[in-house]
Specification:
Chain A is mostly helical. Chain A contains twelve helices and no strands. Chain B has nine helices and twelve strands. The chains are: A mainly alpha, B alpha+beta. At the A-B interface, helix 4, helix 6 and helix 7 of A face helix 3 of B.
Chain lengths: ~200, ~300
């Protein structure tokens, strides 16, 4: 079967390779920003590239469970790497916004309080912090069943990230809505109603 | 009635763009030197502002008819046919007609205006426009005494405009000014940049430039100008009335609901540049503040 062949092939990919490849865009974007490769307004471009990449990694992470359930593809061993990469890019996105874009702390705070799309983006970031901190074997063991429940915060943080994207654009634009829709579908696939058939067919 | 207004950004502020300077050399420096004497009074920032490069001005654009990415207009606007081009001037005018672009150009005096350009998205450029005063064009058509507003409309040609497939805005793009704003000597119709024909992505063959208002008021590729006695609808105001008012004067004290307008990022300043404070009326308060005397600018944003 194709899924089994893919699973066998994928098992040979070391996780460190995913981390390494996943981190490469960060210095690449910085290089582009410094050399004009991000256009004439590199600050916004860098901020947006980092944020978009974080969102794309989030979507990839959400695909892992449905791929296993509906296609028999097992990519579970890369899920933690995707989560940590995603958090890294959200943090870099935030850092560029803080340091290069807004520049002053009082304005940062004013923006967080006054601007709903920033409040939402910041909330998503805060929700991701405990998840990043507990993305290690020790925490999984220590927290036991609580770990699974804690990491369901993903289902809140990811749509918040997409809503943040929809809101920051002028007018209703297609691209962020596509991400929001994709995330909605990926989350809907996890609803008990849709997830049930697998269990009954096994029994 | 050309040359009524003397810009505070002048010849000496111009980046040495070779094309531009060649043209300048031909036109001779006498007029330019005259301007230098008048420059600088009351405009603290003027002296250290330099016009952006041709590359910057023509590669970073908002022209949603060609897509919402800043690079889309430069990529796709080339397919817009700008010749032949007619502008219908109608409504409350003595001589309503379809004026051809050549017709208009034959009767207008083109001059240079180096203006700050402040986008509502909090970025800014300095652009050396070539154009004529809108007042001259309106007078050509003969404004009737009851007219109070001017409505503008951008070309809508779906086969040449990939962006209009998506209802980001209610196409065609429309804008409007109060008649006194439209007749103000700072308000121009631009037909060139750096002495060259204005590129399609910047609003060829002619576009409005109102330097004290956010960039989206300066409507591009105009096909219709209508004089009316009622305030005309404007595209961004229709799309998000809370965020974009009819006036949309640059005002560092009135924030956009989603971001601060107190400062701006200068295009071309690089990755580690400091933001610059935004000036009241984009630095043109001395010339235009009287238009809004007694108005609450937070209410009429």
């Amino acid at each position: 079967m194709l899924a089994d062949q893919v699973n066998t092939a994928v098992r040979r990919i070391p996780v460190w390779l995913v981390y390494t490849l996943g981190l490469l865009p960060a210095p690449w974007f910085l290089y582009l920003g410094l050399t004009g490769g991000l256009g004439v307004e590199p600050i916004k471009a860098l901020e947006h590239e980092l944020g978009l990449l974080a969102l794309q990694i989030m979507v990839a992470g959400l695909c892992i469970t449905p791929l296993r359930r509906y296609a028999g593809l097992n990519l579970l061993r890369f899920r933690r790497a995707l989560g940590i990469l995603c958090f890294t890019y959200v943090a870099l996105h935030l850092l560029v916004w803080l340091v290069l874009d807004v520049q002053t702390l009082e304005r940062v705070w004013a923006d967080v309080v006054k601007r709903p799309y920033i409040t939402i983006g910041m909330t998503a970031f805060v929700l991701l912090i405990p998840l990043a901190l507990t993305s290690n074997d020790l925490s999984v063991r220590r927290l036991g069943p609580l770990w699974r429940r804690l990491h369901k915060l993903t289902y809140v943080a990811v749509p918040l990230g997409a809503i943040h994207f929809v809101m920051l654009r002028k007018g209703f634009q297609l691209e962020p809505l596509v991400y929001l829709l994709a995330i909605a579908v990926l989350l809907a696939l996890r609803l008990p109603v849709l997830a049930r058939p697998r269990r009954t067919s096994r029994a | 009635m050309a040359n009524r207004w003397k810009p505070d950004l002048t010849e000496r502020d111009v980046t040495p763009e070779s094309v531009y300077l060649n043209r300048r050399a031909l036109l001779s420096g006498v007029a330019g030197l005259g301007l230098v004497g008048l420059a600088g009074q009351g405009h603290a920032q003027a002296d250290d502002l330099k016009p952006n490069t041709w590359e910057e001005i023509t590669s970073y654009n908002n022209f949603y008819e060609f897509g919402t990415d800043k690079g889309d207009p430069a990529k796709y606007a080339g397919q817009m046919t700008t010749s032949p081009w007619t502008v219908r001037i109608d409504g409350m005018v003595d001589r309503p007609a379809d004026y051809t672009f050549e017709d208009i150009m034959a009767r207008m005096t083109v001059e240079e205006r180096i203006y700050r350009f402040r986008c509502v998205e909090a970025w800014s450029m300095v652009i050396p426009w070539n154009g004529f005063e809108l007042a001259d064009l309106l007078n050509m058509a003969g404004v009737q005494s009851g007219a109070k507003y001017v409505a503008f409309e951008t070309l809508l040609r779906p086969e040449e405009m990939p962006g209009v497939r998506f209802p980001v805005l209610d196409w065609p793009y429309v804008e409007g000014l109060r008649l006194d704003e439209a007749m103000h000597p700072l308000t121009i119709m631009a037909t060139g940049i750096y002495g060259r024909d204005i590129p399609n992505q910047n609003g060829a063959p002619l576009r409005l430039v109102v330097p004290w208002k956010y960039g989206f008021k300066s409507i591009k590729s105009i096909v219709r100008i209508t004089l009316t006695d009622t305030q005309p609808p404007t595209s961004w105001n229709k799309a998000a009335p809370r965020e974009y008012g009819f006036y949309s004067n640059v005002n560092p004290e009135v924030d956009h609901p989603r971001w601060s307008q107190a400062s701006e990022r200068r295009i071309g300043a690089g990755l580690f540049a400091r933001n610059e404070p935004t000036l009241m009326m984009n630095g043109y308060a001395e010339e235009v503040a009287s238009l809004y005397a007694g108005m609450d600018l937070a209410k009429f944003y």
